[in-house]
Records
---
Amino acid sequence: MMATKEPRVVADLGRPETPEETAARKAETSRTHRASQTVVNLAWSLGVSVAVMLVLVLVVVRPDLPDREPVDYTILAEQYESQAGQPLLSPELPQGWYANKAELETGTDGVTTWAVGFITPSNQYISLNQGVEANPTWLGNQLTPTDRPALEGTGGEQLDDVAWTVYDNRTADDAGNYAYAMSAELDESIVVLRGTADANEFRTLATALGAQR
């Protein structure tokens, strides 16, 4: 006759488990295992999702925003001349220069402005602003950045018999398109050049404007 197996003594209890305690222990063990598996599966799924996103960011080519298309400022200058009442500046520039903006507008001060935005060979920017029969107030406005005082002249240059005032603001923080500027009187207009290009590229544009007189 086989001996009856004695119930296992549980150390924490100091006695054998009751059937109810055994069932409860097994149920808790099963619940803990399922919870652990759920966390592992969630972490795995999250890791896979992050990996997929990284692959998409690295592999998918995100095209740069297109630059403004070049505009033919010489043709536009001819078209707007009758509206402006006097010749508009359209300088002949070396290869590598192009305009991405050419507009004629009349401000609240009543001054008509011919504005051309040039991209230089070094991929910098110079804005040409011709104020038709402009006044000192217009000039001051053209040389005043938003929320900052007006630029002050730092020197002068004589280019093709035109006296230019220079405003070198390159040491200022966040100077932007007011980093460097030049102004002069050309016939019945006041002309302001300002932008991010270096002094030599400003001289190239200023000289071309003087040659057009």
---
Amino acid sequence: MVVVGFEFYDVIQEVAAEFPDKKYVYIDNVIENVENITCIDYKENEGSFLAGALAAMESKTGKIGMVGGMDIPVIRNFQVGYEAGAKYINPDIQVETIFAGDFEDPAKGKESALALYAKDIDIVFQVAGKTGEGVFEAAKDTGKFAIGVDSDQRYINPDAIIASMIKGVDISIYETIEKIQKGEFESGNVYEYGAKENGVRIAYGTEDMPKLVSDEAMNQIQELTAMIIQGDIEVPEAN
């Protein structure tokens, strides 16, 4: 059984204990030392580094922002990577984060983003689940820009969303199923997917959408990705 989402953290452990003869693959969170739960986690700090670098390249004001759903460790990891990527490109850039306090409230997301845009911030990275929909609305209303997360979200508003930091959930699940078919699957492990495993990357939408990111910036993101893979850039993690 494949289970996706941090909100199932308690439930999957209860079910796994009740049915110990079944195997579970838990996506996008980590549970250690449970024999029948295999976890697939993503190095969101690496993907967010690329998002921060892109925002810094494309910002016209030298001020960028982030809206996080809640002030919790995983969102802090996004924040640390985002700030590091932005500072790598422009050491003087200003980066501000607001935690909306909710993952399910677009109104709070919009309020948070509007507060950032009012400070001359011109690009906001949303890491807030459904709350992030409000960030996209704020970008549209103010004529400014946003960066999506987890999947390619440009389709929501291709005139306001310049790119998305996506997780390779499809790749990781495919490779897990492949391991099962080959008899190489070892239950109870934790597998991490970062830039090297194509587990995090920047997506720019489809060819029919307006092009909001320059070729130069796209090429530089590719170069930074290669540097992370090669170990030339070590992306910090939240403590």
---
Amino acid sequence: MTRHQKRLSVPNSWPVERKEQTYTVKAGAGPHGEEGVPLLIVLRDVLGYVDSKKEARYALEQDSILVNGKALSDEQRPIGMFDILAFVEREEYYRVFPDEGGRLALTEIDADAADSRLGKVVKKQQVAGGDTQLTLHDGTTLLADDDTITQNDSIVVSNDDKSVVAHFSYEEGALVTAVDGEHAGEIGTVDEIQVTNGSSQNNVLVDQDDGRFETVEGYVVVIDENFTGDDA
């Protein structure tokens, strides 16, 4: 199986220039599905901390690059929305956040904010023993004691013990960001959730200071002011 991917065919969320070269590194197995950006691209093309795959591998061997609190060894590991990157020796911390246009970008945050990450609940189910299992947007699964958490809500998960440290309900009045579609990267407040019949997604009307936009439910994520980057 090839370890390269044509730049013209990468997802729109990848922060790469499509016409500079024919190929780029291919994402390995891991979270975020096909939208996940290989860590090498973040280190080389976005931050400029390495010039090659060899340099990236050496940097990872030092255990000073953490993703969601865990040291990584694979430069192809997919990085995606709301992941937390920590560069221990540099004392630099970033949250992966979609910019306007939908490309994944890095928002600098402080060390305290790097202790946890945001996740959108995409599935909730009962498992053996009667526990409630939540599945997040990146494929992460965890057990939760809070029965009020439901699909489309957002939670903040500790990178240390994977516990839920905050819960933001998906409801009218909630602060959200669009993460896909023509309004990707825009932030506003849910004005109305329009329930549709059948299998179609619900529509969401989002108010902003200078107007409003409409998108589908699957394209929005509930956030807190601390996750917009304004307080970083």
---
Amino acid sequence: MAEKKNKLCVEINLLPAEYRKVKNDLSWILDRRIVWPIVALLVVAVLIFLLILHIEDVTSSLENELQTTLAEVEKEKPLLNKITELDNKLSVIAQKNNALKSIQVSKKRWVILFENMSSILPPNMWLTNLNQIGANEMELKGFTYDFSEVAEYMVKLEKQVSISSVNLISIATTKTGGEDTYNFTIKAAIKQDLGLEGAK
């Protein structure tokens, strides 16, 4: 077989440089490596723009609602002030009622307590001093001519509705009018619910 010879064609532009036409290669515009990133960038820009518009719209709507609410609050402010004034008056009335109840309970408490302490005194015993030494504690001081009456009084006192416990703090012998007497100090615990309704 006869071999075909390849012919080589060479194009030579002999025009001067200032007259030559340069062909612009615009094929890069259609290159996917350039087109798709540009399209993606445009889509992102449009989405950001729409998001900004949405945020501005929501912000404007919230500001309008806030202004409307503030206007309604200002409109109802006199009524709110009146309600606050009434609440303050009710609070003062409640405090006065509680104070009156406390006085009534306290009065009833001490009446019961003194009745209990005095009604069971033995015949040869006298109380000379009563001190409240705590919220629910009393200190009783007195004297008697009969030593056994101290124990008798403590037993009876502990059985009273007003007393929860009794302790002998001290007892000493002394002379009163030439006779032997016994000075004593007793501490009594008062029941916390004494004087309250339903307390036993």
